[in-house]
Amino acid sequence: MRKQAKNDEILRFAEYWNDHTGSWPRELIFDSRLTTYTNRMKINDLGIRFITLRRRSRTLLEALAVTPRESWKTITLTNVCRVYRRPRILEETVNFAGYHRPLRKFAIHGLGHDQPTLLISNQFDETPTKLIDRYARRMVIENAIAEAIDQFHMDALSATVPLKIEFDLQLTILAATLYRIFGNRIGNGLEKHTAKTLYRKFIQAVATVEISSDTIDVKFGRRAHNPDLKLNGFEDQDCRLPWLGKRKLKLTFG
Predict the structure, then answer these.
(1) Which of 106, 196, 226, 240 could pair covalently with 119 via S-S, beta carbons 3.0-4.6 A apart?
(2) Residue 1: per-residue pLDDT
(3) pLDDT at 81
(4) Distance (Å, whole) CA 84 – CA 87
C-alpha cells in the first residue's frame, strides 16, 4: 500500500466486503493513522461502527496527568491477561474537524503501557468494558504479527514479486502453526509461549545425528527442558522424510 493511497484504503475494504457479502461490515477496528476523520465520517454514514485510537499529544498527556484520581473509574476486562484486567478509564465526549458528530473518547490507564491509551468510538450504546475488551483483541492480533516479524522476519521479504511475497507469507504461517502445535503437544503452560521462546528452549540445541538403514538416532546434550520432551513421547516415533523414506526416529537426552 502506498502512503498517498492509505487514507482511502479502509473505504475500499468496506466496499470489497459489501460486494462479497451483500452488507457493510458491522464493525471496524483500526489504528489512528490509518485514515482521516473525514473518512471516519463516511464510515459512520454507512452505518459502520468503529473503534480506533487517538494520537497521544503532549497537551493531552499533560491534561490527563492533572486530572483528579476520583474522576477515573476502574473496570474489569475479560479478554486480556489478568495482570492488566482492571484498568482505570476516563470517558468524555469530543468533536473533531472533518467529523460532524460527537465521538466517545476513553483514556485508559493500566494496559501495560507507560502512557495511557486513548480510544475513540462512534458507539454510544455499548458499555466501556465491551468496547475496550473488543479493542484488546486487536492487541492479540498485533502480538501475532510482531512475533512473525521478530522470529520469522516477515518484514524482510526476499523479493518484491507478488508471487514470491505470497510464498514467504505461506511459509511464515506454516512455521508459526508448527510451533503452535509443538507448544500445545508439550503443554504445561508452553502452549502459550511464543515461537521465539520455544525455539530457544527446545530447537536451538546441539545434537549428534546418526542415520542408518532404518533408524535416525539423535543424541541431545543435557538441557533444562529435555524432561518436557521425554514426558510427551518425543523419544521414539516413526517419521517419513521424502529423501530417506520411512525411518524410526530415536531421540536420546543426556
Answers:
(1) 106
(2) 65
(3) 61
(4) 6
pTM metric for this prediction: 0.63
In whole angstroms, what is the distance from residue 221 CA to residue 131 CA? 50
* Segments in the chain below pLDDT 50: none
Rg (CA), the chain: 25
